[in-house]
Request: fold
Amino acid sequence: MSQNRITALDGKRIVLGVTGSIAVYKAVDLASKLTQAGATVDVIMTDAAREFVTPLTFQAVTGRAVYTDMWAAPAGQGLPTHIAHVGLGEAADAIMIAPATADTLARLAQGRSDDLLSVTCLSARCPLVVAPAMDGGMYEHPATQANLEVLQSRGAYLIEPETGRFASGLTGRGRLPETPQLIGHLRLALGRDGELAGKHFLISAGATREALDPVRYVTNHSSGRQGHSIAQAALDRGARVTLVTMARDLATPVGAERVDVASARELLDAVTSRITASSPDALVMAAAVADYRPATAADQKIKKSDDPDAGMTIDLARNPDILMTVKALREEVGRPRVVVGFAAETNDLIKSAASKLERKGMDLIVANDVSAPDAGFRAETNRVILLDREGQQTEIDLTSKARIGEIVIDRVAALLDG
Ligand code: CTP
Reply:
C-alpha cells in the first residue's frame, strides 16, 4: 500500500478539470498526489490547457487516458455510461477544476455546454470545487467576482487563490495554492455532509514551552503530529475544528481554526475560554503538558556565574491541570459532551492510563508507550491502546498517526451518538 494513501480520498473518483493557465504545471503535481492518495483521477483538459502541457503528462501521472475532446472521448475506463460527459459526472465523487481560468468560471456561470469540461459540469450532480488562477486584475474584476458569486450560490466550493507574484512579474491575488492546500480543500468539500457535520471539536496538540528567560524554555519531545492528525480526521468527517497547537512547525490542516499557544497556562486559557464561549461537542487533549514550569521567568537573559564551579538550580512551580479544570467546568456547563485524553507512559501503561481516565473524568484515553522508537513522540507512526469508561481495551498495532487519528475520531463519533 502506498505510504501516501489518504483514507478520505482512497477509492474516490475525482474528475480533475484543467484549464488554460500557466498554473497548469501545479495541476500535474496535484493529479499525481491524488493518484498516490488512492483516488481514480480522470483529467479533462480544455484546448487552452493543452497549449501549456500535453495530455501525455497527465496520463503518465494518473495512469489513465486523458479526456480532451467532446466528440472523441476515450471509451470505457469504468464509467457508468458510454456517453463520456454524462458518465464522468455520474461516476465522480467530486469535480475539481484547478486551475480554473476567468473564462472557465464565466462559462460555468452561464451554464455553457460546448466543450467536454463545461458539459460534464452541467450534467454532474456531485460537488464542484473550483480553484481559480489568473494574472493581473482578472481575479478582482467585478465580472469574475460576479461569476464566482453565482457559482457559490449554486453550491460550488471556492478555493480562494493566494496573493503573491504572478508569472507576469506583477503581484496580486490570483495564484493557485500549492498541492497540500488544494488537497485539504478537496477533503473538506468531500466531507462537507459527513457524519460529524455540525459538530465542533476542540483539539490540543504539541509540547508546552515554559519560559525560563527570553531565550530559553523547558519543553518535551512531543511533535504535535498525533493531535494534528486527529484534527484532520475530524475535518474529513465534516466537523468544525479548533486546533489549539504548540507545534510551530506543523501546517494547519485546511479548514481548522488555529490558535497558537506556548505555555500550560496559555493552553488552559485557550481551552477553557473556548468551552465557555462556543460549547464544543468534544475535547481531545493530545497536548503534552508540562506539569511544572520555571517558578519565575527572568525578563533578561540569565548570565552564567563567574565561578566556573558553581552549578545552577531552577525552581519549578506546579502548572494547572487542564483536564481537571475541564472536569469541573463540564459539571457546570454540560460541555464538552465527550472528553478524550492521552497518557504518555514509559512503564505501567494500562494501570497509569486507567487511573488518569478515572481521575480526570475522561470518556476515552489513548495510552501511548513512548519508550519505543517507532511510537509516540516525534515518530511518524504510533502504537496505542484505547481505554474507555466501560473498561473496554482496544489495542492498535503500529500504524500511521493519520490512521490512529481516524480511529480516535471514529470512537468519539460513536460516543457522541450514544
Ligand atoms: N494534562 C492536562 N494538564 C496537565 C497535564 C496533563 O490536561 N497539567 C492532560 C494531557 O493533555 C493528557 C492527560 O492529561 O491528555 C494525561 O497527561 P500526562 O502528562 O500523561 O498525565 P499527568 O496527569 O501529568 O500524569 P503524570 O504524573 O504521569 O505526568
